[in-house]
Design brief:
The complex is a heterodimer.
Chain A lengths: L2 H9 L5 H8 L4 E4 L6 H6 L3 E4 L22 H12 L8 E4 L3 H13 L5 E4 L7 H22 L5 H25 L8 H11 L4 H16 L9 E7 L7 H8 L2 E6 L5 H4 L9 H11 L10 H14 L4 E7 L3 H16 L4 E6 L6 H19 L3
Parallel strand pairs in A: 1-2, 1-3, 3-4, 5-6, 5-7, 7-8
Helix pairs in contact in A: 1-8, 1-9, 4-5, 6-12, 7-9, 8-10
Chain B lengths: L6 H19 L1 H23 L3 E4 L5 H6 L3 E4 H10 L5 H7 L9 H12 L7 E5 L4 H14 L2 E5 L7 H22 L5 H25 L8 H14 L3 H19 L12 E5 L9 H10 L1 E6 L15 H14 L3 H4 L3 H14 L4 E7 L3 H4 L2 H12 L3 E6 L9 H12 L11
Parallel strand pairs in B: 1-2, 1-3, 3-4, 5-6, 5-7, 7-8
The chains are: A alpha/beta, B alpha/beta.
Chain lengths: ~375, ~425
């Protein structure tokens, strides 16, 4: 099996052999819902952080809908459905952040209707800066303590340092992977990349880094993709953990060459620069990284980040996907449309459900978008 | 060419005309209407004169702005009030939806649309806390960038504890620095202290009034109970608000002493508490409930100001700590931010204190966080108080989601099943 095949297999379902093997060794797995959860702390405690996703959840979330409303996004409804169905029984706990209204209420509903094991929410500031970072440091310090107490582990400074280094290694490797995508003939598709990204949060990190290194070697021998109609960026919000729609977009001639997703570039762009206070180092790297739409003081920075990636990856058009009822990413459009228009960059906004229900419509719209880009390229 | 619209001016004039009518029919009601008219006239005047006008969302202490001679343009009330005027706010919502998804809160869309339409002059800056919802977080920062306004967000932590209050107090200090930068003027601590004295006096009256309003029969009208929400947001820190509550307290005390309810003797059949939104676009629904069912809306979540006066205003630090608590405990911020128990506990307490026969959860369709708790809360209210809750969807500003008639239909069918006074929460 190639490294790509192995990583792809990890992303295809909720549970994978790596997680099962980890558990067979008597080790714990804790699910987390947001990329603002510092995985390094869990990993330093010998716990496998697993980013919760409701992969293959059916659109009908009847159990979850007893409590959550149709006005809540289908990502959280699908997660709750899976939680009630017992699909997350392999998890020894859940860590949330107040990343958005939907996620924080998922925490409430799960708490109120459990029992579920270890439940913890981390408050993440909505701003950057020294004071916000210091506040977040306090939050993750409390989180570290609770993990130690609940799981009976010791998260020493040495273990934390090793975990930070290990996760920084991932970031370096992923940067190299994304650099390959900037080439004129990238050696892998956007769908393949997304699977690689999902695998990062679904398996032990040493093994992942090993596979990632192997993948980079394999890709150097792989023939680049050059028969595409347009180079695309995927942008927008969360719940983007299924490569099927990306495959569809690429089947009709698009090639996704970069993204601004939290399951993508935003996950690894910011390394943790270790200082004397490791928790502060972590806090700084999480607060300062390319931001989610929830961060109030980073509107222009988000737009600049996007423009930089557009330039570096020579993007022809941006597909902005967001979950229905996601205010954070829905609101960004107000400014983003203006910015991209000024940059003469085509934008396709897709409002979707977690399971991308209207695939036919998305296909038609993407097709039209690609045609429009081609016409622009041809000077029509 | 259509007539040029200036919303603050138009609203002020509308309220002025309404106050004149009310002075004959119900002088007591005219007090709040006159204050509203004066407030919007003040906003208009400031914009005409080129003074600094800051758009603020509830939770930002208006005391600080009044103390710095900055006219606060309250975003919520302007949308809510405009929605009740005959023209409504639909055109602003439609205009905003050319830019953002329809599921964004009408409060944000209305504000956005008003500025896009040119009917509301662009404020100098936008100021809001990070609570209560994503719709604010998703729109205010981008609106500021788009419109070219200055911007400041007061970050409010998820968990409510002492370190969180201290963090908010520091955020308010940074907000003051931002305001000083905007105006080129330093905050005069004595002016703030004076505003805090007014604010404290108003709060003392509010707390006393809340106790009086709990009396059976209730001395307050449904409209009084809801309209004071906007007044508090706009005018906290001004002597006008103190005067208003002083007068209201006097007349309400008299009514309670005489055992006189707002409705005629024996007419108060049901006491309703609106534990979430209410149809701002048509508050005559409340009058219809009174008339049709003898159902008095005795309390609203939005008007549930339980914050105590700030005990120590001797120093800026102490005032900021007090205002930080106020920011966090502002109705809606208190309920919609943080853990769901914040909402539940406040509503159980409200229903109990006001001896409610039923709870009305008029769920604004944009409030995703509250809809996620609706079932949990309804069940818990039933378990703890034995009273029913009606959950239904509406848009508080936009009658196209649920019209007046549709809402009356829902309320009517529900109230037909609520036995008068039998299940009362005590």
């Amino acid at each position: 099996m190639t490294a790509l095949e192995e990583l792809t297999a990890v992303a295809r379902d909720v549970v994978n052999p790596h997680v099962e093997n980890w558990r067979r060794q008597g080790k714990k797995v804790v699910g987390f819902f947001c990329s603002y959860v510092p995985e390094e702390i869990l990993y330093a405690g010998g716990i496998l952080p697993y980013r919760v996703r409701p992969t293959k959840c059916q659109p009908a979330t009847h159990l979850a809908d007893t409590y959550l409303s149709h006005l809540n996004c289908t990502f959280v409804r699908s997660c709750l459905q899976f939680a009630y169905e017992g699909k997350y029984e392999f998890l020894d706990g859940f860590v949330f952040t107040d990343s958005c209204d939907h996620i924080r209420r998922l925490y409430d509903v799960m708490r109120a209707t459990g029992p579920f094991p270890f439940m913890r929410i981390i408050g993440v500031p909505h701003k950057s800066g020294d004071e916000a970072t210091a506040y977040y440091r306090g939050e993750i310090a409390g989180f570290r303590k609770e993990v130690e107490q609940h799981f009976g582990v010791e998260i020493t400074e040495a273990k934390l340092k090793d975990a930070i280094d290990l996760y920084n290694e991932t970031r370096d490797l992923l940067k190299r992977l994304y650099a390959l995508r900037q080439e004129k003939a990238p050696p892998l598709t956007g769908a393949e990349t997304l699977n690689v990204m999902i695998a990062a949060t679904s398996m032990p990190r040493e093994q992942y880094n090993g596979l990632l290194s192997r993948l980079l070697g394999e890709l150097s021998a792989r023939k680049g993709i050059s028969n595409y109609r347009a180079r695309l960026m995927i942008s927008g919000g969360g719940g983007c953990d299924d490569s099927t729609p990306f495959e569809m977009m690429e089947d009709i001639g698009g090639l996704i060459v970069t993204d601004t997703l939290c399951f993508g570039s935003r996950y690894f762009m910011q390394p943790t620069v270790r200082g004397g206070d490791l928790l502060m180092s972590l806090a700084r790297s999480y607060i300062d990284r390319p931001s989610c739409g929830r961060m109030a003081d980073k509107v222009t920075e988000r737009a600049e980040f996007m423009k930089t990636l557009i330039h570096e990856a020579r993007v022809d058009g941006v597909i902005y996907q967001r979950m229905r009822y996601c205010d954070l990413w829905g609101g960004q459009l107000f400014y983003l449309r203006k910015v991209l228009k000024e940059s003469n960059m085509p934008l396709l906004d897709i409002e979707r459900e977690y399971h991308w229900g209207d695939v036919g419509q998305v296909r038609t719209r993407t097709q039209a978008f690609l045609e429009m880009i081609e016409e622009r390229k041809n000077g029509n | 060419m259509g007539t040029e619209i200036n919303l603050p001016k138009q609203i002020s004039e509308g309220f002025r005309a309404m106050a004149e009518t009310l002075q004959q029919a119900n002088p007591e009601w005219s007090w709040s209407v006159e204050l509203m008219s004066d407030y919007f006239a003040r906003v208009h005047q400031a914009q005409e004169k080129g003074e600094v006008v800051g758009a603020i969302n509830f939770g930002i202490p208006s005391e600080i702005l009044w103390a710095m001679d900055i006219v606060p343009l309250l975003i919520d009330p302007i949308g809510g009030v405009a929605s009740a005027f005959p023209e409504g706010v639909m055109k602003y919502i439609d205009l905003a939806e050319q830019h953002v998804p329809g599921y964004i809160c009408a409060n944000n869309k209305t504000f956005m649309g008003m500025i896009l339409a040119g009917d509301l002059p662009k404020p100098n800056f936008i100021l809001h806390p990070s609570v209560p919802c994503d719709s604010n977080m998703g729109t205010y920062p981008v609106m500021a960038e788009y419109f070219g306004c200055s911007y400041f967000c007061v970050d409010v932590p998820y968990l409510r504890n002492e370190s969180g209050f201290a963090y908010v107090a520091e955020e308010l200090r940074r907000m003051i620095a931002f305001l000083e930068d905007q105006t080129g003027r330093k905050l005069d601590v004595n002016r703030l202290r004076q505003a805090m004295e007014y604010s404290n006096q108003a709060h003392e009256y509010m707390l006393k009034l809340a106790e009086l309003r709990q009396t059976v029969p209730c001395p307050y009208s449904s409209l009084d109970a809801i309209s004071e929400y906007g007044l508090v947001l706009m005018l906290c820190g001004t002597p006008q608000l103190v005067d208003y509550f002083k007068k209201k307290h006097q007349v309400t005390s008299d009514k309670v002493a005489q055992k006189k309810g707002y409705l005629p003797p024996g007419a108060e059949k049901l006491r309703l508490v609106w534990i979430y939104g209410a149809p701002a676009f048509d508050f005559t629904i409340l009058l219809w409930l009174e008339k049709q069912y003898g159902a008095l809306s005795v309390a609203f979540m939005n008007n549930n100001f339980v914050m105590k006066p700030v005990p120590d205003i001797s120093s800026l630090d102490q005032m900021l700590m007090g205002l930080a608590r106020k920011t966090v405990l502002m109705p809606m911020s208190r309920e919609c931010g943080g853990v769901w128990e914040n909402y539940l506990d406040a509503q159980i307490d409200l229903l109990r204190r006001f001896k409610a026969d039923a709870a009305i959860f008029a769920g604004h369709v944009a409030c995703k966080s509250n809809w996620a708790m609706a079932k949990l809360v309804k069940d818990r209210i039933h378990d703890e108080l034995g009273i029913p809750t009606l959950n239904f969807e509406l848009d508080i500003f936009d009658p196209r989601v649920a019209s007046t008639e549709e809402i009356k239909g829902r309320l009517g069918r529900f109230l037909d099943e609520v036995p008068a006074g039998r299940t009362r929460a005590e």
